[in-house]
Every structure is written in C-alpha cells, then in structure tokens.
Design a protein that fits this description.
Blueprint: H1 2-12, E1 30-32, E2 35-37, H2 44-54, E3 59-61, H3 63-72, E4 76-79, H4 83-88, E5 90-91, E6 95-96, E7 100-102, H5 108-125, E8 130-132, H6 136-143, E9 151-154, H7 160-170, E10 176-179, E11 194-195, H8 207-224
Parallel strand pairs: 3-10, 4-6, 4-9, 9-10
Antiparallel strand pairs: 1-2, 5-11, 7-8
Helix pairs in contact: 2-7, 5-8
C-alpha cells in the first residue's frame, strides 16, 4: 500500500523543479494507515491547499532546500505526522502537532472499520485507522501564537501536510512552507540532526513491509560489500 501511495503521489503531485506545471491532479479517496489521503474532487480543504500552493501563497520547499529555509530564513519545521511515526525518526528541535490521530472510537461501525482496515492494510503496513485531529489549529496556536511565524509544514509523503497547511492558512497563518514529497523524499544529508532509531525517510514504513524493507537494506549492503 505504501508503494502504491508513493507512486500515486509521484505521478499526480511531484514534478521536477524545472517544469513549470503545478503538480496536482485528481486524487481518489483513500482512508488508510494512520493517515488519510483526501479526495481532491470532494474536499474543499485539499482544493484550497492546491490553489494556495499553485499561486505560491504557500511556498513549496524541497527537502534539499529545507535546512537553508530553516537556518537562513527562519522557518520552523512543523511535523504533522502521528506520534508513532515521529517516535521512529524526527528532526531535532522541530515542533510536533499531528493532523491525524488514532481513531479510538469503539462504536460497532468503527470497530468493523478497524477490523477490515487491519485485514487489508494494517497487517501489512503496521498502521492504525486515523481520524482528523479536531484540535490541530488550537494546538499549533498554543505552540506558536504569532501568526506571522514562518512554518515549514511536513509529513511523511507530503499529503497530510497539504491538509495541515490549508487549515493553518485558514486559521490566519500567512508565512507557510510545504515540504514537497515529505520526509520520504529526503536524503540523509538534507536533515543532519535526526533523532530516533530509524532513518527519517523510512519512518512511515511498518508492519510486515518493515521487515521486507530491512531485508532489502541488508541485501543492498551485502551487494556494496
């Protein structure tokens, strides 16, 4: 599933920097692994974010340019991933306010959703069913009350951060950056001060797919040896 989402993101959102086209197309609805991909055809939030990024109102910042934006331009990195992803790897000193949180509702319908989710997604990816954090904006305001604060909004793939950036803009924040492609597209040298047991670009991988990833890394290391 992670592979499919990455492919969807790269083909529908990400384009090389040299190309002038704005990297957005229709995204089908996917409710999945501890996060949600919002349907651009029905979600005003995503549509609004797309327009803000297209117009340059929200600035697109690539991972290789993030350190410069933070160190030279005064951007503060806002990590909107859920807690379990951040615990694996995080940029030291970054703020953390998740845009999606684990859905802890235990109603019969939600329990059924969780059961289906685990069978089709959770077992493979190690991910939970999530829901939108209704207190996201207020939590960011508590952490950074000044609305002119420069915030670089980041997540794993660059999708959840689109939703977060739109909510922040609608909440009055005007100096916003969006980490294009999220931490998954970052290289080791892009963020030098990383904490946690995993590499930043692998923090979204879990479940059975995590062990396949570790095997792949091992095989690559043996091949280089």
């Amino acid at each position: 599933m992670a592979t499919q989402l990455n492919h969807l993101f790269r083909t529908s959102i990400l384009k090389p920097k040299a190309q002038p086209e704005t990297p957005f197309t229709t995204i089908t609805t996917v409710r999945t692994t501890r996060f949600q991909v919002i349907n651009a055809t029905s979600s005003s939030t995503t549509s609004s974010a797309r327009q803000l990024i297209e117009s340059g109102t929200i600035r697109s910042i690539w991972p290789e340019d993030a350190s410069t934006a933070m160190n030279s331009e005064g951007f503060i990195l806002l990590d909107v991933r859920p807690t379990w992803e951040r615990e694996k790897a995080r940029v030291k000193g970054s703020l953390h306010v998740p845009i999606f949180v684990e859905d802890k509702d235990n109603s019969p319908i939600t329990l059924l959703k969780k059961w289906v989710h685990f069978g089709y997604i959770g077992l493979w990816t190690g991910q939970y069913l999530t829901t939108l954090n209704s207190e996201f904006l207020s939590q960011v305001e508590n952490a950074t009350p000044a609305k002119d604060t420069k915030l670089l909004v980041a997540c794993g793939e660059g999708l959840r951060s689109i939703t977060a950036a739109s909510k922040l803009y609608n909440g009055g924040y005007r100096n916003l950056g969006w980490l294009v492609g999220g931490f998954n597209r970052s290289k080791d040298k892009d963020f030098l001060d990383v904490e946690g047991k995993e590499k930043l670009q692998y923090a979204t991988v879990g479940g059975a797919s995590y062990y396949f990833l570790q095997l792949l890394i091992l095989l690559q290391a043996v091949g280089k040896g």
